Amino acid sequence: MTNEVMTKKYDLEERTRKFGIDAIRFAKQIPESVVTRPLISQLVRSATSVGSNYCEADDAESRKDFKHKIGICKKEARETKHWLKMIATADPIQEEKVNIIYQEAKELNLIFNAIVNSTNRNS
Is the pTM of this model over 0.90? Predict the structure, then answer.
């Protein structure tokens, strides 16, 4: 593996980890209510799942397994965008913070989409 490939691999692993951490820190700042409690739970689950599934993809046992795990990363990043918008609706005061995390979720979704497309082309 070249240094460039190793750096990119590390960067995406670190980036997905940071994304999950940022989502957890954000979730802890949201005032809990009957409405926000389930939204917070869903947000944390989907945002932290991106990194865990990326780690699994990185250790995939086959090309098919890799593609499947990256596809889950893509879906979880997209789902995180959904929960962030629901939180912004439930607590409009959080909208500025939501937009920052939403942008990262969007970028991760696009990255994983590109990986899926590249994997499909190389199959």
Answer: no
Number of domains comprising the chain:
1
Tracing tokens 């780690």 back to the chain, one arrives at 55
The interaxial angle of helices 63-90 and 95-121, nearest 10 deg, is: 160
Query: How buried is residue 5: exposed, middle or buried, by Cβ count under 10 Å (0-12/13-18/19+)?
Result: exposed
Residue-level pLDDT at 101: 98
Residue 34: which of 91, 72, 84, 96 has the closest Cα?
91
Identify which of 69, 48, 55 has the alpha carbon closest to the alpha carbon of residue 119.
Answer: 69
Give me 59's structure tokens: 């250790």
Look up tokens 């609706």; give the residue.
89
* Res 6: pLDDT: 52
- Rounded distance between C-alpha atoms, residue 37 and residue 53, angstroms: 24
- Check which CATH number belongs to the domain holding 65 and give it: 1.20.1440.60
Asked whether 111 and 12 are in contact (CB, 8 A), the reply is: yes
Residue whose entry in the numeric block shows the structure tokens 């497309």: 117
